[in-house]
Amino acid sequence: MPTRRSDLSFPPQVLREYALLADGERGAVIGPRGDVVWMCLPQWHDDAVFSALMAGPGSYAVTPADPDNVWGGSYEDGTLIWHSRWVTRDAVIECREALAHPGDPDHAVILRQIRALHGRAVVDVQLDVRAHFGKEHMTDLHHDSGVWEGRCGSMRFRWSGASHARRGKAGALRQTIELDEGDRHDLVLELGESLSDEPVEASTAWAATEHAWTLDVPDMDSSIAPRDCRQAYAVLRGLTSSTGAMVAAATMGLPERADAGRNYDYRYAWIRDQCYAGQAVGSLGPLSLMDKAVQFVTERVLADGPKLRPAYRIDGTHLPKERDVGLPGYPGGVARAGNWVNNQFQLDSLGEGLLLLATAAGHDHLDTEHWKAVQVLVDVMEKKWREPDNGIWELAPKRWAHSRLICAAGLRAMAQHAPPPDASRWLGFADQIVADAASDCVTDTGRWCRAPDDDRVDAALLLPALRGAVPSDDPRSVATYEAVGRELGREGLIYRFSQDARPLGDAEGAFILCGFVMAMSAQQQGDELAAMRWFERNRTACGSPGLFTEEFDIEQRQLRGNFPQAFVHALMLEAAHRLNTPGGRLP
User: Fold this and answer.
1) Residue 259: its pLDDT value, please?
2) What does the angle CA 415 – CA 519 – CA 262 come to, to the nearest 5 degrees?
3) What does the angle CA 271 – CA 275 – CA 280 come to, to the nearest 5 degrees?
4) Considering just the CA atoms, what is the radius of gyration of the chain in Å?
5) Distance (Å, rounded) from C-alpha 107 to C-alpha 155?
6) How confident is the model over 430-444, as pLDDT tens digits?
7) pLDDT at position 5, please?
């Protein structure tokens, strides 16, 4: 008989071993021992009910009873349906798992199906719901007709398929499930402030989830990496709510560097990130995620105008201030909810908004409200483009070259779809902005630099040529491309900029987004071989489930920062399609 665990606890693991389930309204992070270690309810920005990722209480686990096992897993193609897989000394066991899709904003459903693929499967199952980042325990537990129900704070839950579970000393519900080879067993966990009258039926929910993913994710056969692109699109869909808002990542507090104070809450919708995703998807065709991005950005622009914020909750409300949630945190980080970006001004978001709307206009997907948003963006830009802003990297306010040049790119892109009076005026405005940036942000060597008082090269300065602010063969574009590769490229990956006198890797990880931008820039410069090399190296900078974080530690080959990072998946998707098209030209 296998050695049995006396206690099922799930300390944090390296990020490359985590997978994500998501339904648009919230996500569940799953570890290598079948442990749901992170899930916030009812929606992304709310408090966690499972917080072991932050070294807190609360988990939902399906774990082989034999501790001597080897973990693996994979997503079903073009979905966020995950298969955890364990090879033990006597068996091969899988657990198929998903959040019921599409998600209900008020009611989450976790589907789990245990499968004995070879030999006799013995698994330990544990449920410990802990609302408000672990502060609330399960109460009012009762069992009827094989179904458990109870409360945790204001949250109700119902658990089907664990009729023989018993409450252990620590308060968790525990059961051992044994299956003969070929057998399957379903578990369904429902959580929400209110539940439906009848329990969710497993086979019905699975069929609906499979069908929804089939409808949501296109084939992507026009790319150089169809399967990875389908997976990237599924990630973006899983992070996008019914409101149209796409969260930047599913998690909070995962550090970029240990004890460096650089760990943030990314469970919100950034205007810039949403525009990146909408442009990437729209470059492939008039797909639904482009329309969702246009919907959310338009609503926020029309609602807030000159007070447009960098990020919002998925319901369009403002971000809360940072607060300590009272957990130890992921190793090297601090568990803080909320984000201080709330009070920043990011000029480039205005230009990205125009680029997004121009992409939609190219597919004839703009209506009267969208054109109103275009005019608001231009009006705000005219009033504020000379002001210092916090920029793409959310730093101290300066007159960042990237911010100004992206505004010019947005104006040029939108002018292609505007009536003659506006078109000519916007093109003239773009020329004025480019001339202004050229007056104080070009170095003696002829490349773009970050700001008037900062002559360092910055990988973000590849974007103006890529998005059309200036021609790709402009000497400043060519010099910038060469400088980024020379000064910021290491082992096929790209850093954002040189932080200080330290070696690049001592300051932070390589930025995977920048690597995909570099791949597209190389193609734009006519170096197809370099483009493929940059793309393929960055495509491998992911975890075992194929999910990207924001940064990659080259020396340790580890993922760093929150995950999955939506804008990285978006730029990978765009690069994979551009590199399969002569000259990178897309509709």
Assistant:
1) 65
2) 90
3) 155
4) 24
5) 10
6) 999 999 999 999 999
7) 38
Residue whose pair of structure tokens reads 């008039």 in the numeric block: 286
- For helices 512-524 and 566-578, the axis angle rounded to 10 degrees is 20
Please report the pLDDT score of residue 256 as a whole number: 86
Q: Position of tokens 């980024």? A: 484
Give the C-alpha separation, 273 to 575, whole Å. Answer: 16
Distance CA 194, CA 196 (A): 7
**Predicted confidence band at 4 (pLDDT cuts at 50, 70, 90)?**
very low
- Please tell me the number of Cα atoms within 13 Å of 442 on its side-chain side: 15
Could you tell me the pLDDT band of residue 1, with boundaries at 50, 70 and 90? very low
pLDDT band at 10 (very low <50, low <70, confident <90, very high): confident
Distances (CA, A) of 509 to 53, 263, 389, 488: 21, 13, 24, 11
Could you give the CA distance from residue 231 to residue 78 in angstroms, rounded to a whole number? 5
- DSSP 8-state class, residue 525: T
Cα–Cα distance list, 121 to 97, 116, 176, 255 (Å): 17, 5, 10, 37
DSSP for 430-461, please give it.
HHHHHHHHHHHSB-TTS-B-SBTTB---BGGG
Residue ranges with strand state E in 315-375: 323-324, 336-337
Q: Check pLDDT > 50 for residue 42.
A: yes
Q: Is residue 420 classed as helix, strand or coil in its secondary structure? A: helix
The three-point CA angle 37-270-560 to 5° equals 45
pTM equals: 0.96
